[in-house]
Amino acid sequence: MALPRVLVLVLAGGAGGRLELLTEQRAKPAVPFAGVYRLIDFPLSNCQHSQLPDVWVSVQHHPASLSRHLANGRPWDLDRTEGGLLVLPPYQGTDRGGWVSGTANSLWRYSPLVRDFAADALVVLSADAVYKLDYREVVDAHLESGAEVTMVTTEVAADDASRYGIVEVGEGGRVTGYAYKPDEPSTTTATNEVFVFSPGPTLDRLEDLGAEHGEEGLEDLGTHLLPAQTGDGAARAHPSAGYWRDVGTVDSYWRAHQEFLSDDPPLDLDDPRWAVHTRGGRHSAARVLLDSAVDNSLISGGTRVLGDVHGSVLSPGVVVEAGARVVDSVLLPGVRVRAGATVTRAVLDNEVVVGERATVGGDGAVTLVGRSAEIDAGGELPAGARFPDPGTD
Fold first, then answer.
1. What is the pLDDT of residues 51-94, one digit of tens each?
2. 232: Cβ–Cβ under 8 A, 6 or more apart, which residues?
3. What are φ and ψ of residue 225, in 5° steps?
4. pTM of model > 0.85
5. Taking the domain 6-259, which CATH number applies?
6. Which of 159, 192, 211, 292 is the most exposed place for a label (fewest CB within 10 A)?
7. 146 phi/psi in degrees, rounded to 5
């Protein structure tokens, strides 16, 4: 029996404004994670392990930063003569052309291409979460259920639930209620931005909603499409008990890194049965010198550590000079912490230079410093660098 024909659409075109300085010069899915990875590596690796070789990536903001990373799709086995990786930029020339204004609007714009592909199932993903998931398993359950949409769900903290699409689930997994980022969530069961749609009925419904609300009024999937499918009893839930973390805010991004520094990290990124793949770099081995002290940290290739590093993630090319101290922080590629400087509870973007004896962070909040900033001893951080207490998003 032939496998169902499945198309994966990764919606990677959002501005990522909640990541502030980290997305000023790069697409959100291109944001580094755990030293050597990018956020988009997680859904693409899941596609490879799920044996789904037809993957389209919708891009928009800072597309070059993502296109350079994706290249021909080889790390995820998507460099194929037929199928494989297809990057979809904004375009003009048809009545569907123009700037994408939301995830549902994006699906509406590409619906003629999706129809032409003639898939049995359409998997729609975001690219701002860290997780592993067998999409093929979800597709099989969706096709068996006869639903119009299957929402993969996860449990979230009650004080964080208003950031997500919240569902109520009844007998047999039927979704009986859906609310998009509600002020007062009725449950803590959230969609984790993985959806499997039956393409024909979903696109037909989207056309009707577009006629009713206008193409710009479609906005996100959770604005009109998912509530309409839920209201008609056409939505099913597929619970996922595995690790899943949305890293779409500075604080959640920092906290996710801290989880990977534990003695028992939530995911084994090198597990040969489900490894997370990325575009390879050309960095030498990390160098940790004798007089330095490193503990509970992730140290990427091409780094040089002469000082002390505790509970931190160092991306390729980072240098921590003698006498410098880095604590509970995430340093992105090319950061240099000079002699005697201290960095505490901070995220430093590419090529930041912390000058000799300078201090960054350490007041209990998560501090973010934008790309290429230079911080001198006694100098002030760039405007907008401070973020709320870690208890809030």
1. 999 999 999 888 888 989 999 999 999 999 888 999 998 888 88
2. 148
3. -65, -55
4. yes
5. 3.90.550.10
6. 211
7. 80, 10
